[in-house]
Specification:
Layout: H1 5-10, E1 18-21, E2 25-29, E3 37-43, H2 58-74, E4 82-85, H3 89-92, E5 101-105
Antiparallel strand pairs: 1-2, 2-3, 3-5, 4-5
The protein binds adenosine monophosphate.
Active site: 100 (tele-amp-histidine intermediate)
GO molecular function, one term: hydrolase activity
Motif (Histidine triad motif): 98-102
Length: 114
């Protein structure tokens, strides 16, 4: 099967500014940042979306949240506060069919989102 865009980034076939990686996940800067800090955290496993998660993905998800916390600290936004967003499906605004967590910070963020 054709690799997703984010699999290609994880496999270093497409360049990206990677800020963290391990055997389960990769974090890299969004190419079109919506805040001074905008990092995407993805599992290496090409899970298409939140909707396609399985019970067996629970340990991976726990790990991803720990990585999100650590990336926020590493980026210097943990103290000021930040937002984690997962767009799911068409109405959710998902454009890349590979599960990803947006980590946004570095400025006060508005609520609600559009
Ligand atoms: P979503 O709309 O939630 O699916 O988010 C996809 C995100 O991927 C968007 O914020 C895009 O700016 C970002 N994106 C698309 N292509 C790249 C790329 N080559 N490198 C980094 N980020 C990307």
């Amino acid at each position: 099967m054709e690799k997703t865009l984010f699999e290609k980034i994880a496999d270093k076939e497409i360049p990206a500014e990677i800020v963290y990686e391990d055997d389960q996940c990769v974090a890299f800067r969004d190419v079109n940042p919506q805040a001074p800090t905008h990092v995407l955290v993805i599992p290496r496993e090409p899970i298409p979306s939140l909707e396609s998660l399985a019970e067996t993905n629970a340990p991976l998800l726990g790990h991803l949240w720990m990585v999100i916390r650590d990336v926020a600290r590493q980026e210097g936004i943990a103290q000021g506060g930040y937002r984690v967003v997962v767009n799911c499906g068409q109405d959710g605004g998902q454009t890349v069919d590979h599960l990803h967590f947006h980590v946004l910070g570095g400025r006060p963020l508005q609520w609600p989102p559009g």
